[in-house]
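Handout, page 2. Input:
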Amino acid sequence: MPLIALTGGIASGKSTIARRLAEHGAVVIDADQIVREVQAPGSEVLAAIVAEFGADMLIADGSLDRVRLGAVVFADDAARATLNAIVHPAVRRESAARFAAAFAADPDAVVVYDVPLLVEARSEDPWDLIVVAHAPEDVRIDRLISVRGLSRAEAVARVAAQVGDDARLAVADVVIETAGTMAETLAQTDALWERLTA
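Output:
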């Protein structure tokens, strides 16, 4: 019943690895999805965000304007720290509940927590294995421009706002190199699955 943390910088191929592990039968729990859920209209987290950052962070239907909030916090370390202090405790509680539910449903499950901010927020948690998706910064910047449509300045800012590659690699038990072909990334992921289920 291993509990695996899967992390990587923005545009590092982490989602591709998570999808492949899910195809093999892993229970993948997505930290970003939990963040969206704990920030839903009516939540204590959303109320705290509005109290801190203002009602103009909401769109007409009362939900969070993630783009507007992102523009504020990616440009301001103090604002990002404030947001994290609001969001991370709620995400930690919800993720723990989901891990417990997955293992209650199947004690032999391989549970994978897809978590971008592992080093920033969760590196001390009792993971059985930390897997890092890794591609050089220039590759990730190019992906953000070509795949997600960001400007070069936006892409560079997003990468710069995250912890550096050295810090992620320092906590890694397994590194999956994603700068090559899709087939190479999937082959490394398949080898990881064989190791987890051996």
